């Protein structure tokens, strides 16, 4: 193999490695973005579950109050 051929192969391998490094960085950025969106969605889900439970308790309390006979004097 000639020296020039080896240099060309080395240059091609360096380009391939740089391309893979860029692809890896892009995938890592996408993963970080997905993780952040998942964390936000889980947080929102927890808040909504608390709100749902609070509304259910309020509904139950109001239903009990409506079921009691009214005391009119």
What do these coordinates show?
Residues 31-58 form a coiled coil. Keywords: Coiled coil. The chain is an all-alpha fold and 73 residues long. It is 89% helix and 0% strand. It has one helix at 3-67. The longest helix is centred in the middle third of the chain and has 65 residues, at 3-67. The mean pLDDT is 95.
**What are the segments in which pLDDT stays under 50 over at least 5 consecutive residues?**
none
The portion of residues assigned to helices is over 70%
- The arrangement of helices and strands along the chain is H
* Oligomeric organization of the protein chains: single chain
* Strand coverage percent: under 5%
Tally of DSSP helical segments: 1
Q: Tell me how many strands there are.
A: 0
Summed over residues and divided by their number, the pLDDT gives a mean of 95
Q: Estimate the global geometry from the Cα principal axes.
A: rod-shaped
Largest sheet: none
Helices, strands, pairings?
Blueprint: H1 3-67
InterPro entries: At4g15545-like
Keywords: Coiled coil
Coiled coil: 31-58
């Amino acid at each position: 193999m000639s020296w020039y051929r080896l240099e060309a192969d080395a240059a091609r391998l360096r380009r391939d490695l740089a391309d893979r490094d860029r692809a890896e960085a892009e995938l890592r950025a996408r993963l970080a973005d997905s993780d952040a969106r998942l964390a936000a969605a889980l947080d929102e889900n927890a808040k909504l579950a608390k709100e749902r439970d609070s509304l259910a308790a309020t509904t139950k309390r109001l239903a009990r109050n409506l079921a009691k006979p009214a005391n009119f004097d």
